[in-house]
Each structure stands twice: as C-alpha cells, then as structure tokens.
Design brief:
By secondary structure, the chain is α/β, with parallel strands linked by helices. Helix content is about 25%, strand content about 20%. It contains seven helices and twelve strands. It has helices spanning about 15-25, 50-65, 75-80, 90-95, 95-105, 115-120, 145-150; strands spanning about 5-10, 35-40, 65-70, 125, 130-135, 165, 175, 180-185, 190, 195-200, 210-215, 220-225. Strands 3-2-1-11-12-9 form a six-stranded mixed sheet. A six-stranded mixed sheet has the order 4-5-6-10-7-8, with no helix packed on it.
C-alpha cells in the first residue's frame, strides 16, 4: 500500500536546529513522501543558524519541489544588507543579523556565498486549498499583495481564502476569522477550514515552543509542538 502523502508546515525556526529536528521527528517526517513547507525566518536570533541552513539545504536538494522554503523578513533583511554596498546592514544587525554573520564565519564560510540560495525562496506558495506566506495577507491572492505585507504584515482581520502564516509569535497556534480568533488545540485532528488565517509562530527562539502542522489528503489537519531549549 502506498504511503499517504502529507504536507508538513513549520515556521520561524530562527536557528533553533535541535527543536526543528525534534519537531519533525514528532511529526514522523518522511522526506521520501511528505511535502515540507517552511514559512520563513530560518536565520538570525537562535543558537544554530548555520546547522539549520545546512539541514534545510540538504532537504531541498533531496526533495526538490516537495520542499518549499518561503522567504521571511529576516531572509529579506539579510539579502538587502548584502546589496547596495551594505547600506541596509543596520536594520539587519538591529534584528540580530550579526548572529547569522558570525554563525557562517564560525564554519569558515561567508553568508554571501549562498545568496542565490536565499534569493530562490519565493514570497508565497499556493495550493488548491490554501496559501502560505510568512506574515499576512490583505488580498486573498498573494500575488496582489505588497511584499511588505507578505513578509512584515501583522494584520489578522482577514476572512479570505485560507492562509497559513508565521512571523508574529503567540503563546499557542491561533485561528483568525475576521474579528474572531481562537486557540487551536494540539494533537487533535480537525477539518481544514476554507477561509481565515492559521498562525503557527509560537516563539521558539524566545523560549516558548516550535509548532508544526500536518495536513492529510482528506483535508484534516493537526498541530503539534516541542518545547524550546533556548534559555531566556
């Protein structure tokens, strides 16, 4: 019997490599059959930024189109800092960019060696059931939104076609539908909604948890998490 094809969504790893591996193990991640979507912010802030990069780069090489790595505001700040002679470096460093610089240098590399890899990250990913972006949407069609909305936005007053987001850390995963919202119970299979916003960033790098989402072929989903090992 063929193994069920699942989609796993994670976000805002921020160099929390150990928690990323633990979460994927908890989700029984199978790189041979699963699709993996990361909603951005793999760099900055956390303890194992280079290790996270190496792991995700390897997954992308092996999985190809089944590994979707979306660009977040931190990848964008890094790319902007490397362009224009470093004119935008201060904003990146203010947001912990120096930790990424040092993480690569510690491994005898410069982050500039891999800019093309980060440039390949799209701003959004769309399926026939939902969209994935780093931060937020105003228009349900990701292509109709400004890049600043996709990677920096924090608007949750959204009732359009279902979208999965990260970026804004909450204590627990939340579901937003217009002015209403509620906490998503972990480890419970639920019917995937058609509209609204599911927010999955639970602030692992700030000492809370790293949360992931599993979507099955029958349009049911489950969220689960692992505790952060980051000391704050």
């Amino acid at each position: 019997m063929d193994k069920e094809k699942r989609t796993l969504i994670i976000t805002d790893i921020h160099g929390c490599y150990d928690e990323c591996r633990a979460l994927l193990e908890k989700m029984s991640f199978d790189e041979e059959t699963d699709t993996l979507i990361n909603l951005g912010d793999t760099v900055d802030r956390g303890p194992k930024i280079y290790e996270t990069f190496e792991y995700l780069r390897g997954l992308k090489e092996r999985m190809g189109d089944r590994c979707i790595l979306i660009r977040g505001n931190h990848e964008q700040m890094m790319l902007d800092a490397a362009a224009n002679g470093g004119a935008d470096r201060n904003l990146w460093y203010y947001n912990s960019g120096e930790k990424t610089v040092y993480a690569f240098l510690h491994q005898k590399h410069k982050f500039q060696e891999y800019l093309d890899w980060y440039l390949d990250m799209p701003y959004y990913y769309v399926t026939d059931k939902y969209s994935c972006v780093h931060a937020s949407l105003k228009d349900p069609d990701p292509a109709q939104n400004q890049v600043d909305t996709l990677i920096w936005g924090r608007d949750t007053d959204y009732e359009g076609r279902l979208v999965m987001t990260g970026h804004t850390p909450y204590r627990a995963p939340l579901y937003f539908l217009g002015k209403q919202y509620g906490m998503i119970q972990e480890d419970v299979w639920t019917i995937l909604p058609e509209t609204g916003m599911i927010a999955l960033d639970t602030g692992c790098v700030y000492g809370n948890r790293l949360t992931g989402m599993i979507i099955r072929e029958n349009d049911t989903f489950l969220v689960c998490s692992v505790a952060s090992g980051v000391k704050k």
